[in-house]
């Protein structure tokens, strides 16, 4: 309504929820179920054992390699071109600052849900 085009980039299992809200969706890599299981099992970012490292490394690579396309690629469903004007990112996310720097756009980092 105010001349802004909002694209929300997140995992594919949230696609219908986002589209139903009237926002544009772009899929990020990684599997949120695998990421959540890792966080529950390890109580943080450090792995509890060496077997956890390759799994988490693959998840992070998929997410990071999908960030730049999320900010510049056309809509995957409609093919409509997209150019990011600003990035809003979640603090624990990875790679957002590098993408903002590469694209020379402002970045705003904050939690998108209330904590009180």
TrEMBL record:
Entries under InterPro entries matching the protein: Glycosyltransferase_28, GlycoTrans_28_N
Coiled-coil regions, chain positions: none
Highest taxon of source: Eukaryota
GO BP terms in the entry: carbohydrate metabolic process
Gene3D superfamilies reported for this sequence: Glycogen Phosphorylase B
A molecular function (GO) term: hexosyltransferase activity
Domain Glycosyltransferase family 28 N-terminal: 2-116
SUPFAM superfamilies: UDP-Glycosyltransferase/glycogen phosphorylase (SSF53756)
PANTHER family given in the database record: STEROL 3-BETA-GLUCOSYLTRANSFERASE, STEROL 3-BETA-GLUCOSYLTRANSFERASE UGT80A2
Name this polypeptide is given: Glycosyltransferase family 28 N-terminal domain-containing protein
Source organism of this protein record: Aegilops tauschii subsp. strangulata
